[in-house]
Design goal:
By secondary structure, the protein is mainly α. Helix content is 62%, strand content 4%. Helix 6 runs antiparallel to helix 7, helix 6 crosses helix 8 and helix 8 runs antiparallel to helix 10.
């Protein structure tokens, strides 16, 4: 008989159903867009590449991959205390991000059907993959006597509106950074199996290929829309989205470094590797890359990490709310100034970096 761990100390909507994490600027977001503008997108310039990617989607290489095996049929009492809390947070954040992708892609597939069939088919096939990922992660949460009510999440979360080109920037980077995150963890644990504290990590090698194929789809769509990449505004927006993704990941992961330590990884080393690889990968389609080798880049990130630690300390203090807000203001101002500093760092022109290999 399988022994399960005791319930973690999390608020519940009802027994066994976790209250979703509070929405912040760093939590996974849900998106919507201008569907009418998306319908009008002409993909003819890169139609052959898109059709080839759709053919690969249809092969559905992972249709039998996300099946729980005997490795899950055991007690997880060895994941306890702070490690258990961080692990549950990791599963929840990952599930929420995958489910967010599912909702967006499913709605796009529905809205574009019979109006822009090439895009609609791509989104429908990707929503299939994201649903599997979210379901697999939610089932993993049940090993810790918790699940997410995804229907409640759909109705309760706020939705961020992005114009189509911003959707493509954001989703392209999300999928590609997801690939590098999953494959880096998989390779590390493949070499250090004693640190594989839970069997979900064995699934990451095939899993990350879904992320990579999705990123390739968005790469092809972006190339079919030259105005999304080839003017001065595109350069500014690409820089903004690259920095947003890198800063968000770094701050999230450093605030949860205990989770990475539990699987034998140093959070800083891991994030720097993922940022470097994602940056070069994005350079294959984006007109610019971030100069992540500039010492000022990580100096600014570390200042934001320090600010985050101070903000959490203020939240944990017994100070009354108005005083807390006043104490936080200079830290928020510092974070904004650091992001501006990062944005003003001279980027790398990818047209001059044709030899870069991700």
């Amino acid at each position: 008989m399988v022994t399960t761990v005791q319930k973690p100390e999390f608020d519940e909507i009802r027994p066994g159903v976790k209250v979703p994490a509070k929405e912040t600027i760093l939590t996974p977001r849900f998106y919507t867009t201008d569907f009418d503008e998306m319908v009008k997108m002409d993909l003819a310039v890169n139609e052959d590449e898109l059709k080839a990617i759709l053919a690969e989607f249809k092969e559905d290489y992972n249709r039998h991959h996300f099946v729980r095996n005997a490795d899950f049929d055991q007690s997880w009492e060895h994941i306890d205390g702070e490690t258990r809390r961080l692990f549950v947070e990791f599963l929840e954040r990952s599930c929420t991000a995958e489910f967010s992708g599912f909702l967006l892609y499913k709605e796009l597939g529905r809205r574009l059907k019979n109006k822009n069939p090439l895009l609609a088919e791509g989104f429908n096939l990707m929503s299939r993959d994201e649903a599997r990922h979210a379901g697999f992660l939610n089932k993993a949460l049940s090993d810790f006597n918790l699940t997410l009510d995804l229907g409640f999440l759909t109705k309760s979360r706020s939705y961020t509106f992005f114009k189509p080109k911003f959707i493509f920037y954001a989703t392209y980077l999300s999928e590609k950074i997801g690939y590098w995150r999953y494959i880096t963890i998989f390779r590390h644990l493949d070499q250090n199996p004693e640190s594989r504290i839970y069997p979900i990590f064995k699934f990451f090698e095939n899993w990350c290929q879904d992320e990579n194929r999705h990123g390739d789809f968005f790469d092809a769509v972006l190339k079919a829309q030259p105005s999304f990449l080839n003017d001065w505004k595109a350069r500014l927006w690409c820089r903004f989205f690259l920095l947003s993704v890198f800063v968000t990941m770094y701050l999230n992961d450093l605030s949860r470094s205990g989770f990475y330590a539990s699987i034998g990884l140093d959070a800083r080393t891991y994030d720097r590797h993922v940022i470097e690889k994602t940056n070069y990968t994005a350079g294959r389609v984006f007109p610019i890359m971030i100069d992540v080798e500039n010492p000022a880049f990580y100096d600014s990130l570390e200042t934001c990490v320090s600010n985050g630690e101070k903000l959490r300390a203020i939240d944990a203090s017994d100070t009354i709310a108005p005083i807390k807000a006043l104490r936080k203001l200079p830290l928020f101002a510092s974070n904004i100034s650091q992001f501006v500093r990062l944005y003003l760092l001279k980027p790398i022109d990818t047209e001059k970096q044709q030899g870069c290999v991700a």
